[in-house]
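Thread: zinc ion complex, take 2
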Amino acid sequence: MRVLVLTGAGVSAESGIPTFRGKDGYWRNLDPTKLATPEAFARDPQLVWDWYRERRQRIRNARPNAAHEAIARLAHQTEEFLLVTQNVDDLHARVGVAAEKMVQIHGDIFVTRCSRCEFERHEYEQEHEHGLPRCPDCHALLRPSVVWFGEQLSRNELERVEDFLGGGPCEIVIVAGTTATFGYIIDWALRASRDGAQLIEVNPEETPLSRFATQQVREPAAIALPRIVDEVITLG
Ligand SMILES: [Zn+2]
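Output below.
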């Protein structure tokens, strides 16, 4: 069986990681959709770093939920599987989804990279740094390796999604916890399900993708996904 899963902020929100949208996402009264931009970083890199360091710490303290576990189970039990997540946290990885079966299309919050050259490093541990980190190679400012609003998606990661989509039709496509506001999420879901796949949307609210779904599940992902994965595994 060939399965594509797309996840968004709703799945992490159920682990207590605030989404960018709505009141909960605000930080020091600032709108995250304005902080997560190259313009904000150019204007006030310290502010942007303070925010990201807090987010990193919050994610380190968070635990994967039943949705993450269900998706990992599906990844293990399916021959051809890809998870494309918009989430920059490590909650999918922590329950054992292998790196080669996962694309973090908006980057990885625990990677710090140079804003100028190719330098990058992982930040596994709690950070004690508070100032502005600089590149050991070229001395330019380091930044979190996430895709900010207005920036291009990584060409490498896009290619990995394209390779999977080009590898044949899917039987099952699951889209969970994303508002599907980015056109590419809808595009991938539709292309993966083009040959009659089941397109299952899991979201408490209606989204632009809903009208294309063969099954709409209006429940939180942590409630719905364990059940859906059981059904899919039985089918396969
Ligand atoms: Zn550099």
